[in-house]
Write a structure and sequence with these properties.
Number of strands: 14
Number of domains: 1
Number of helices: 19
Distance between the termini: 39 Å
Length: 528
């Protein structure tokens, strides 16, 4: 049964359904490089006071010992999610010996990529596997790509929301199957319209020339008065071929039409051999160089602007958890670190993401074919490299088999006209005006590209002739002091002290319970 946007709006505008809509679950994962006050990348390992990166629930590391990752649990208000992230950062700043957190996505001050220390997770098999996986990433893509920081936004609707949706569709599927199907519908709509995310929030139109490590780039970079490289109309170099994309993965055909085909396509991709990566070797002089020679070592290596997710149990792979229990939430991965706020993501961004993802839930669509996937990927690539170019035209696949060329302004305003209805609905459900305010604020960027964060950054670099690195360093110092001056809002210092102690003990327990040697552990992992 196909419903229109206004059918959904009318249904959820009934007071009895407000609670179902106002129970959105949100979680934030924020990555940040540790740097020294004198503007060098920290060489200090993960601080013991922060807990064990392998087992700590809120503070861990990503690729490098110096690339921290902060994880908030599921919360049901934007204010709470931001407060939790601020508390995590406050405790971190108090325990990293005066170091700062780099407030940009693209790194700087990395003169020798070989000196970026790989993340270490202890002597357990799973800990070693995590480090070998990162060794493989280094050998495949280089360390510079791996110290790019981003924001992941986790989003879920309540079971009550899905019960209302199922009733509207007169659907008799098992609830978990219905939920998974609807989340995949959201994924498809997100991929259609996700060019909006780097346009509105892309904050990496420039980079330090050290990022290229002396290699030539095919992109037509210009040089700012203070020496940084930039593209005139770029929004998010992080999301370009310089950042979180992989040419080897371009051949993968990941299906977003339903859970079964998605899991199958991901598992098939894991088994695909790569001649280029096989040449790296599995072991060199007795040391693992990667987990295997396939296009993907493990599922986490699949770079995508959004992922379906299910909380994993001990020993589970992501696709196994999805196949067994369906989609629990979605992970938005196309967000740059916002350098204009201390948390890297603002509460105003959270409000817009609520609107955008709810809109994606309220728009029915057809399944993807190869042509439509290519249109969406091309749109994304165009916007990250020249999204503010007034001459740019995007391909709108309107789900009826027709493709039209539209400017960012034309298409953006069409989308905002529709999202305005969703914003009003969310205002009613949450008894606020934050969502309508968000539409007004973000639509202004559609009509005036100079208001986008990427344009603001270039204005600082080019028009004001400031050094990008000096500006970022000043922001980093300010955010550290602001964080230390702020009181805890959700957690407490003791909560983090206890959590660190518990995580160290958990790591010791895992190490003590290993039964296999590492070679057998890996064989068992991949054979199962």
């Amino acid at each position: 049964m196909t419903l229109s946007l206004h059918d959904y709006i009318d249904a959820f505008n009934q007071e009895k359904n407000f609670k179902a809509l106002a129970s959105i679950g949100r979680g934030i994962e924020r990555e940040a490089l540790r740097i020294l006050p004198e503007a060098k990348l920290s060489q200090q390992g993960h601080y013991s006071q922060l807990g064990a990166a392998l087992t700590h629930g809120e503070i861990t590391t990503d690729y490098s010992e110096t690339l921290l990752e902060f994880i908030t649990p599921v919360s049901y208000s934007p204010e709470e999610a931001i407060a939790q992230l601020q508390d995590i950062q406050k405790y971190t700043f108090a325990n990293i010996n005066g170091e700062l957190l780099w407030p940009m996505s693209m790194p700087c001050f990395v003169n020798d990529a070989d000196k970026v220390p790989l993340a270490q997770y202890g002597s357990s098999n799973i800990g070693k596997m995590k480090t070998v996986y990162r060794q493989g990433l280094k050998n495949r893509y280089g360390s510079m790509m791996q110290v790019i920081a981003g924001i992941h936004f986790n989003f879920s609707f309540s079971e009550n929301f899905w019960q209302v949706m199922q009733s509207l569709h007169n659907n008799e599927q098992e609830m978990s199957d219905f939920i998974s199907d609807r989340y995949f519908s959201i994924l498809r709509n997100y991929k259609r319209y996700c060019w909006l995310i780097p346009y509105l929030y892309g904050s990496s139109p420039a980079l330090c020339d050290s990022f290229l490590q002396g290699k030539a780039s095919p992109l037509p970079f210009k040089k700012s008065p203070r020496g940084a490289l930039y593209l005139e109309y770029a929004t998010s170099l992080r999301m370009s071929d310089l950042g979180y994309t992989s040419s080897e993965q371009a051949s993968l055909k990941i299906c977003y039409n339903n859970l079964h085909d998605y899991v199958d396509s991901v598992q098939q991709a894991i088994g695909l051999k790569s001649e280029e990566f096989a040449d790296i070797g599995l072991k060199v002089n007795g040391e693992y160089q990667q987990l295997n020679g396939n296009i993907l070592q493990i599922e986490n290596e699949l770079y995508a602007p959004i992922r379906p997710k299910q909380v994993m149990r001990t020993g589970e792979k992501p696709s196994q958890a999805l196949r067994d229990r369906g989609v629990e939430y979605i992970e938005v991965r196309a967000l740059d670190v916002n350098p204009f706020v201390d948390t890297g993501i603002s509460i105003e961004q959270v409000h817009f993401l609520d609107i955008f993802l709810t809109y994606c839930a309220f728009i029915d669509n057809k399944e993807f074919d190869c042509d439509s996937q290519q249109h969406h990927e091309k749109n994304m690539n165009e916007v990250v490299l020249r999204g503010r170019d007034p001459e740019l035209l995007l391909c709108d696949d309107n789900c009826q088999g027709e493709v039209t060329q539209k400017s960012v302004m034309t298409w953006g305003n069409e989308l905002f006209d529709n999202m305005a209805y969703v914003a009003t609905l969310l205002d009613n459900a949450y008894n606020t005006t934050n969502y309508s305010d968000s539409i007004t604020r973000e639509r202004a960027k559609i009509n005036d590209a100079s208001l986008t964060p990427s344009a603001e950054i270039l204005s600082i670099m080019v028009d004001q002739e400031q050094s990008l690195s000096e500006y970022s360093l000043a922001q980093a110092a300010k955010y550290r002091q602001d964080s230390l001056d702020r009181d805890y809002q959700f957690y407490s210092k003791q909560y983090f002290v206890d959590g660190a102690d518990k995580s160290h003990q958990s790591q010791l327990d895992i190490e003590a319970n290993d039964k296999l040697n590492f070679d057998d552990f890996l064989d068992d992992y991949f054979n199962n």
